Amino acid sequence: MYLGHVGLALAARRVPSGAPLAALCGAAVFLDVVDVLVDVAGLDNTHTAWSHTLLSASGWAVLVGLLGWRWRGVTAGLVLASLVLSHLLTDWLTSHLWLWPGGPRVGLRLYDDRVLDFTVEAAVILAGIWLYRGSLPDGARRGPYPWLIAGVLLVLQAVFDGLGLARTD
After folding, report:
1. Separation in Å, CA 91 to CA 5, 12, 81, 149, 168
2. Phi, psi torsion values for 53, nearest 5 degrees
3. Which 8-state DSSP code applies to residue 111?
4. Any idea what the Cα angle at residue 114 is, between residues 55 and 91, rounded to 5°?
5. Is 161 helix (H, G, I), strand (E, B) or coil?
6. For residue 166, what pLDDT is reported?
7. How far is CA 86 from CA 4, 48, 67, 145, 146, in A?
8. CB neighbourhood size of 89 (10 A)
9. pLDDT digits over 62-71, tens only?
10. CA distance linking residue 47 with residue 53, whole number of Å
11. Residues 128, 11 contacting (CB under 8 angstroms)
């Protein structure tokens, strides 16, 4: 999942956690950031052991959750940790990931069908925007701002799927 992660972060904004939207988005894509940093550092990432396995994602969720708790309180910590774990769960929908290094691979591989992948990610994005609107003041809720965000996310997701950037490894 690519932009669907941001849709989940937008939905999480509805929970009164005190965490800013940027932190929610950061937590939602945190495992991909770890993946990139591990690759840049030249570390062995066989079976995505540092980021996208059950054990590593759980460890990162605990770390991010504890940091969020210390920064903004218990609710923020729980929401941020949940977003880190949601990343793994939603990636299992679209990809085919190792459950643990050398273990079985799980996932529905929606990336193999670009139209189906776009449909699922678009649904997550639109549901996230709908929930996000509820966190806004009345004037902003009725304005074009949330739907502008949705449009940008949907266009980017269409580009990812159209160019084949969404893939099953």
Report:
1. 9, 18, 16, 22, 10
2. -105, 165
3. G
4. 10
5. helix
6. 57
7. 10, 17, 17, 25, 22
8. 12
9. 999 999 999 9
10. 8
11. yes
